[in-house]
Amino acid sequence: MIVRYAFGVVLGAVATFLLFMLMQAVIANPEAATDTGVKGRIVDFVRVQEDQDVQVKKRKPPPPPPVDEPPPSMPKPTLDSNVSVGMEIGLVDVDIDVDVSGTGYSSDGEYLPIVKVAPIYPRRAQSRGIEGYVLLEFTVTTTGSVRDPSVIEAKPPGVFDRSAINAALKFKYKPKVVDGEPIEVAGVRNLITFQLED
After folding, report:
1. E strand or H helix at 162
2. Which residues contact 147 (CB under 8 A, 6 or more apart)?
3. Cβ atoms 184, 139 nearer than 8 A
4. What kind and span of H or E run contains 151?
5. Which pLDDT score, from 0 to 100, does residue 1 have?
6. pLDDT tens digits for 152-194?
7. What residues form DSSP beta bridges with 188?
8. pLDDT the model gives residue 100
């Protein structure tokens, strides 16, 4: 054990001595000293500008360009009535007698769709090119709104259900009238088709 300590002390002394010698060699090297003084002549001059009178120019905005003739009126666009909006609605056989002169529900008749909102195509299905349909069943209330829409059949299942239900909740109907009073109609079915436009 003592031999180990003695060997460590001797080795440390030798390493210290070698480091001191290395530092002395680095300090004593004449090439390492550099002349930090500036060599050559430095000319420093400042250019003095003469005082100049400030000239103020009054600028006027340029005159506006001459008014051209108004553009010709654009033709009215024609709307193609055969455009598919991605929703297929079956025909409803309706027998309605409407009395415009009175107020309220004066004549009996079946429920009649007034507003059908197109569903929003789900982004995930649109990006993947998925098409399908949803068959819904709901109740038409006495005010003509839709209540309790439920999915009867869907292809593919679970992809378009939420979008179809949200669209159906915005549908508006003329309610069914019996003996001059509006009544609820349960079990109304509607098929909503989701197709990508080419």
Report:
1. helix 161-168
2. 138, 139, 140, 141
3. yes
4. strand 146-155
5. 82
6. 999 889 899 999 999 999 999 998 888 888 899 899 999 999 9
7. 138
8. 38
User: How confident is the model over 103-145, as pLDDT tens digits?
Assistant: 355 467 788 888 888 899 999 988 888 999 999 999 999 999 9
101 confidence band (pLDDT: 50, 70, 90): very low
CA–centroid distance for 85 within its chain: 22
Which long-range contacts link 177-184 to residues 24+ away (Cβ below 8 Å)? 177/105, 177/107, 177/108, 177/109, 178/108, 179/108, 180/104, 180/105, 180/106, 180/107, 180/108, 181/105, 182/105, 182/142, 182/143, 183/142, 184/139, 184/140, 184/141, 184/142
What DSSP state is assigned to residue 160? S
Cis peptide preceding 30, ω within 30 of 0: no
- CA gap 112, 96 in Å, rounded: 9
> What are the C-alpha distances in Å from 104 to residues 32, 88, 108, 144, 180?
110, 31, 11, 13, 8
For the question of whether the overall pTM of this predicted structure is more than 0.85, the answer is no
| CA gap 105, 174 in Å, rounded | 10
Question: Coil, strand or helix: which one is 74?
Answer: coil
Please spell the DSSP secondary structure of 93-148, one letter per residue: ---B---SSSSS--S-B--EEEE-PPPPPPHHHHHHT--EEEEEEEEE-TTS-EEE
